[in-house]
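Input chain follows. Return structure tokens only.
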Amino acid sequence: MNQRLTRPLLFLAALALVPVPAESAEVQPSIPVAPGVFYGRYRKEKERVISHVLKVDLKEKSLQVRSIKARGTDTIRQMVDWVTREGTVVLGAINGDFFRQDNSTGIPYGVHVSDGCLVYPPEKRSMIGFGPKNEPYIGVVSLRAKISFVPPEKRGPASDWNDVTDVNVPGEETQSTGVYLYTPAFGKLRRSRPNGLIAVVETIKPALLVGELCEGVVSRVETGNHQVEVPEGGCLLFFAGGSSRQLEAHVKPGLPVGVKLELPPIVGGVSQAIGGGPRLIRDGKNKVEFSNEVFEPFQRGELTKRHPRSAIGYDRTRQYLYLVMVEGRHSGSQGMSFGELSNFMLDLGCYQAMGFDGGGSAGMFVAGKGFVSNGSEERAVANGLFITAAKSPGAGGNFAGKTAGEAGGPGSP
């Protein structure tokens, strides 16, 4: 969008950017938050549903989509606060993936890529990823990770590479056999290795980016019941069971290491990615693909129930991104089923869409308006998808920091 538009013209243009769903609903006029970011509030009195929509122009060069990992677990409010303190302007944010609530480190079930670095590997669930120019992709991806101990000048295209069993996987002490890679993005947690061999790579370049060939050298080898911290600029390779015995004599200090991380079917780099599910819209058609993805039985039972929901989608041109949060569990809004959510996002103009964690985890931040949640206490979550700008936007102002209290609680922004 042309940033030189006057405020009245910008406001009129924004009205067309968040369409009204086909069914009758009370719609708050679309509000420009910043160049390329627009907010709308929908209320269906009869169905008792209140929904909030952020529409983002992905071609607006001043914006960046970022997948933010919580510091353990944080509420969206806490995440916005510390991201803002780091000097980033947060224009909008929504909660992300389902996560393992029995782990204090806030480990999501699905993939998480932050600023090009793989933090957690994918699960057989939908994810949304973004390329270097904010181009979106929704689908189920897999992990392809390989290592080589052959010098780059002698390395062949295939035969000199070994498969990595998993990346940054929790519970590694229970793994019986395999090769496991741990990156600095894992959070520098100390991991106990009662059995197996640990190769420490102090420096690897580039910094284990998805889609890049990364090179390093084994600096030391640890065995036995040691606790080894992931080097800030490198990685750890853990050889468990049979893999340890086969490679123990081969892996020594000074050995070259090549690493390749990919997320097929995506080819090339991935700037940001965050997991969720299920798929809600495929190629412009209502298609809730819950049965095609790996969910726990109790989660499957929630398919047709109405709950607070969070979701994300984009239009056919892949220019406009929609962040959607549906309130629930209070008198003004009863939430949506996945089927209802899919229909709502189709009406908004989504050509591809997927769900995020919902229920008590559902929450959204809108710059200048504040926070909105399911109407109860905000739940700490594992990650979130943020819309950010490097500096205070010209239109709409720098609104980061306005609180939910100022916004008015449930039913607001």
